[in-house]
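=== RUN LOG ===
request id: a7f3
mode: sequence -> structure
chains: 1
length: 269
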Amino acid sequence: MPIRTAVPPRVLTVAGSDSGGGAGIQADLKTMLALGVHGMSVLTAVTAQNSLGVQGAWELPVDAVRAQYRSVVDDIGVQAVKTGMLASAALVETVAELLAGTDAPVVVDPVGVSKHGDALLAAEALDSVRTKLLPVATVATPNLDEVAQLTGVQVADEDDMRRAAEEILAFGPRWALIKGGHLPGDAVDLLTDGSAEHWLRAPRYDNRHTHGTGCTLASAIASGLALGQDVPTAVEGAKAYVTGAIRAGFALGGGIGPVDHGWRTRPAE
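=== RESULT ===
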């Protein structure tokens, strides 16, 4: 077997840990490996988490987050960054400042609540997300609950998704990806930069094991950007990858299981 000598593109996730392995930095790193990039991490919080929910969460000090980021970026460098759980206003503002000084595309997943409805972002941090974090994003990827938190828009149909995208873009990201997975019917997302619209549709699978979909999608987009793809191409590829991972999601524990990040390499049953 030939020895690889080329260095793969490097992608950094700035997010919390999911001890159950389905979401957070664990999902991010699995996604990055599956898509052919080198994943690195800045840990922002530790959670006690399983298939039933989040039993506890502890954010890291600002200095620890900043030190991790500088350690990786200053020595190894990055071709893309993805953010997830940032927990507090102080962490949001610190990470936004670091991202503003980094020459790489940024995918912001404005994580507000877990799949089980557990809060992962302090309410007082929402304004920092709007005014500090979203302005440095290349792509922002809110789901419908996060859209409502950030903009007050309640999305019930595709016209509402357009209105939500306008509101998100007003905060400053170059692209908004409004994830409509909570709507009935096919899983439809809207990607727009305010002029071009890209509607991404996929079949909805009868599988409740969907823990980690948001983290996985954002990490897949960041991986595509690091590989040199433009935003629409990266998002389209990420959507296809996540759709396959949802289809292959499996039961784990007594609650909501994870998507299967390795679905493309699993032997056929």
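=== NOTES ===
The chain is about 35% helix and 20% strand.
The mean pLDDT is 93.
=== END ===
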